[in-house]
Specification:
Shape: elongated
Strand content: under 5%
Number of helices: 5
Order of helices and strands: HHHHH
Distance between the termini: 11 Å
Largest sheet: none
Helix content: over 70%
Structural class: mainly alpha
Number of strands: 0
Amino acid sequence: MTLANKDIPAPHRVRMRALIVPREHGAWGLLLVPLFTGVAAGVASAHRFWPLLAFIIAAISLFWLRTPVESLLGAGPLRVNTSEERRTALIATVCLAGLSRPSAASTSGAHTLLRCLDLMLG
């Protein structure tokens, strides 16, 4: 049974989010700026949006995957401490790994992403 966000104390929600969402703001910029520049150039020249969207989803999910895996392995600054945190990090890992597959990054990929975010973040 999943608890509603209002039932989970705010510091606990923040910790759960920190276990699965990358914290490095500069790394997000280093990933997204060239990615979207390439997408803009690719769409302008080839007019092929869906393969580019699949690539964006795969690239972002692989980047995002590192944080929950580090949390599970205890290799990052935050480590899972409770079974609930382990479950959340494991769900995030499985969902993000599934999204990184090119076959999952299709029209069903958006639905999968929304469902996984709902499971991960409450």
